[in-house]
Design goal:
Elements: E1 2-5, H1 11-20, H2 27-37, E2 42-45, E3 51-59, E4 63-71, H3 80-94, E5 99-104, H4 109-114, E6 118-129, H5 147-158, H6 163-172, E7 174-178, E8 181-188, E9 191-199, H7 202-214, E10 221-227, H8 231-239, E11 243-254, E12 264-266
Parallel strand pairs: 4-5, 9-10
Antiparallel strand pairs: 1-2, 2-3, 3-4, 5-11, 6-10, 6-11, 7-8, 8-9, 9-12
Length: about 270
Amino acid sequence: MNIEPFSTDDIAPFLELATAENWLAEPWEFEFLLSQFSQGCFVARSDEGETAGFVTSLRHERSGWIGNLIVSCEQRGKGIGEALFRKVLETLLDDGVETVWLTASKAGMPLYQKFGFKSIDTIIRWNGIGRQNNTAPENRTACKGAQPALNKIDGRGWGDRREALLAATISRGELLQQESGFVVVQPCGEAMQIGPFSAADYSTADALLKSALNSVPFGKKVCLDAPASNRSVLSLFNRKKMQIAGSNELMYAGVKPAYRPEYIYGLATMGSCG
């Protein structure tokens, strides 16, 4: 088995595997990851050239994120996932990151614990529906000039600067912003994703979520991932009649991050980048 660099030609095969696992993944994520940290994205192939698995990663200022670790059904149980994970983790650490993040299914946790990862939170997936009533949503803000303020708000939750990830999501979605919070509404397959979504307090989050739902066509599926330890999320999302659709563990290794989940209401991607 050979571990090789992930290329743009590998995006379509990855998405095919991801669809079979009911993962929510979009081509833009891989184009973004390859443009930002291509040295941390890998594919495993057999000696005959058959694709067996994938993993990606992204570096922020002091932290990194591992995502999209997947092995084809036919190749599982052969240590391919562990080999890919070891390779991507070594790459991030060699590049100087202090903390490495990931989200893990229950099945995946033993592998990550083997490499020293610890649980820090649970990420809950929420589903809802759009409520657009043909009126323009409040709080809409043009992207130009908004980035520095967004970096500061986002950084309060994650304890790091994630400018490239925020810029990428904003460029493909609709930004709604208040002085102490922001949310991006972006396409996600046949649904719409709410996130990244950060707010300093409940009232700001409430107003932003209302505007976000009102920006999505009535009845269209909406999804987002949010930390369970943000106690405001449960109350707020239940009030909006959103429903829990699943969960994963948020884990880290290395330096304990200055993580403040009370500021985080929605992740920027559905698992691949945080």
